[in-house]
Amino acid sequence: MRAGYLGPKATFTDIAVQNAFPDVERIAYTTIPDCFKAVKNKEVDMAIVPFENALEGSVHLTTDYLFHETNPPIRAEIIVPIQQHLMVHPMQYNKWNEVERILSHPHALAQCHKFLHQQFRGVTLEQMTSTAAAAKYVSEHPESNMAAIANELAAEKYNLQIVKENIHDYDFNHTRFIVLAHNDTEILPSLTSTYEKTTIMVTLPSDRAGSLHQVLSAFAWRKINLSKIESRPLKTGLGHYFFMIDINQTYEDQLVKNAIEEIESLGCQVKILGSYFSYHTQK
Amino acid sequence: MRAGYLGPKATFTDIAVQNAFPDVERIAYTTIPDCFKAVKNKEVDMAIVPFENALEGSVHLTTDYLFHETNPPIRAEIIVPIQQHLMVHPMQYNKWNEVERILSHPHALAQCHKFLHQQFRGVTLEQMTSTAAAAKYVSEHPESNMAAIANELAAEKYNLQIVKENIHDYDFNHTRFIVLAHNDTEILPSLTSTYEKTTIMVTLPSDRAGSLHQVLSAFAWRKINLSKIESRPLKTGLGHYFFMIDINQTYEDQLVKNAIEEIESLGCQVKILGSYFSYHTQK
Fold first, then answer.
1. Chain B window 187-226: which residues touch A at a Cβ cutoff of 8 Å?
2. Closest of B167, B163, B149 to residue B96, by C-alpha
3. Interchain proximity B213–A220, CB inside 8 Å
4. Distance (Å, rounded) from C-alpha B259 to C-alpha A75?
5. Which of A117, A191, B51, B264 has the maximal Cβ count within 10 Å?
6. Nearest-angstrom CA–CA distance, B82 and B15
7. Cα–Cα distance for residue pair B271/B66, rounded to 1 Å
8. Per-domain residue ranges for chain B?
9. CATH number at A2-82+173-180
């Protein structure tokens, strides 16, 4: 079993894969579209990409790719807590509180804003393409007195020493990752799930006001709970959007099927991205 | 009259200001929060920042700042067509189709993807913080055979020569800019407006399913048309959102007032960002 994920090694996506599928062969890809293509062309059995962060919101590249391209369905989601640590090269261990530069992904730097402001005011912050890339860079420059902000796996992988644990400002920060795989591939996460959900994308008829209200009515009177509704540009001009909706039930429920059928009868286009179980990891 | 805008000079925000307010003194700020702070502290009479692009979607920094901070109201929106041109230093004019590097903002590079793929395949693309910064950099390095992708104003401002006009892939691409100003400041754009709108932000009660449907119902049965609804994370945990809603009417309409009153009675928190006219510029 082979899993393609958004690399490099030791990203938070890598953590999601290792927690959910400890026995698969993991293949790192450079971009989110590369992950989608790899599973579509069956280079890998499944692809794992980030979908939404509690602070930054949806990952638009993932959302837009799901809408505009034909892909295998979403077969699972994995929710991972985002825990950031400050780490240095072992050669710099004694001087860690005098670091001159701190490297990380811009989101990670933002997530540790208060800590950095209090403990490292005035230190140069440098943006890297991922937290793992920052850790790798620090490991390759042992002579420089600098630190990376990254996860525990990156510290292990790149032989860095964690000097301050859990420096992120908010404890509730999580990221949702999705697992895409063809229907004939058996997906067996080594976690237990608490609930099942369905994600659909809806394009409203352009010529009628109040269409979104009609769509929500189809769910509301059936008491089908929606956990998310988000608009994204259709890329055909200002004011044209599609909607991504998360339904807290499986598509197999007759009421969900009927609601979707009726939404289509109203003139909406509906794309079902998948019905899948949601898994939480402890770290 | 002083207008603070997202700089440097010759950004698309600068174009928006020059088109709408040709006679004001323009003051460039480095970041969107700096523009907000400048108008809040009355360093300037109004602030102009980007709010939404037809291809890339909302500018999250602007949306989040409008939600989380107390600001002067939105007093106008300015919609500007996004026209990208390829430009070089006059010293490199004869060799422009052999450029080795092309510099621009990542969104501009993405907006000219097809052109670049067809005419400059293999040429290094370099990301800059704005299209204007790319033009400035090219102007400062006359000896290098490189080009910038930027707007007409940047070519003028930094004395660059446009070698290919309108290289953007889609003609319908526009950006919405908003004008923030205190209520006692008189805003007189030199454009004519076609319509008025109201923008509100709504936080739903956390303990009740179907609340968004109720909110939309309050507008739907009154036949109040909504031109946009978008969710953003509340930054309190996955699955918690607020909603930004654009209403195609002024808040002065009794029906709009009543709808908002009822939404508040349902337990929602409503923040009214402003009722304002929408202005389109030709270029």
1. 209-210, 212-213, 216-217, 219-220, 223, 225-226
2. B163
3. yes
4. 40
5. B51
6. 10
7. 9
8. 2-82+173-180, 85-164, 193-276
9. 3.40.190.10
On the question of a common fold for A85-164 and A194-280, the answer reads no
CATH class entry, domain B85-164? alpha beta
Query: Closest approach of chain A CAs to the CA of B109, in angstroms?
Result: 15
Residue B174 forms contact with A (CB below 8 Å): yes
Which superfamily, per CATH, for B193-276? Answer: ACT domain (3.30.70.260)
Size of interface A-B (CB pairs under 8 A): 95
Classified by CATH at the fold level, domain A194-280 comes out as Alpha-Beta Plaits (3.30.70)
For residue A121, the distance in angstroms to the closest alpha carbon of chain B comes to: 19
Q: Is residue B175 among the annotated active site residues? A: yes
Closest CA to A4 of A29, A40, A41: A29
SS (HEC) of chain A: CEEEEECCCCCHHHHHHHHHCCCCEEEEECCHHHHHHHHHCCCCCEEEEEEEECCCEECHHHHHHHHHCCCCCEEEEEEEECCCEEEECHHHHHHHHHCCEEEECHHHHHHCHHHHHHHCCCCEEEECCCHHHHHHHHHCCCCCCEEEEECHHHHHHCCCEEEECCCCCCCCCEEEEEEECCCCCCCCCCCCEEEEEEEEEEECCCCCCCHHHHHHHHHHCCCCCEEEEEEEECCCCCCCEEEEEEECCCCCCHHHHHHHHHHHHCCCEEEEEEEEEEEECCC
Inspect the interface and report whether the beta carbons of B238 and A57 lie closer than 8 Å.
no
B60:A56 CB<8 A: yes
B233 and A56 within 8 Å at the Cβ level: the answer is yes
ipTM > 0.90 (yes/no): no
To the nearest whole angstrom, how far is the Cα of A176 from the nearest Cα of chain B?
A: 8
Query: Is A56 within 8 Å of B217 when comparing Cβ atoms?
Result: no
Q: What is the pLDDT of residues B40-68, one digit of tens each?
A: 999 999 999 999 999 989 999 999 999 99
When scoring A63, A216, A279 by the number of chain B Cβ atoms within 10 A, the one with the most, hence best to mutate, is A216
Whether residue B171 contacts residue B177, with contact meaning beta carbons closer than 8 Å, is answered with: no
**Tens-digit pLDDT profile for chain A (283 aa)?**
999 999 999 999 999 999 999 999 999 999 899 999 999 999 999 999 999 999 989 999 999 999 999 999 999 999 999 999 999 999 999 999 999 999 999 889 989 989 998 999 889 998 888 899 999 999 999 999 999 999 999 999 999 999 999 999 988 999 999 999 999 999 999 999 879 999 999 999 976 778 999 999 999 999 999 999 999 999 999 989 999 999 999 999 999 999 999 999 999 999 999 999 999 998 7
Q: What is the pLDDT of residues B203-235, one digit of tens each?
A: 999 867 789 999 999 999 999 999 999 999 999
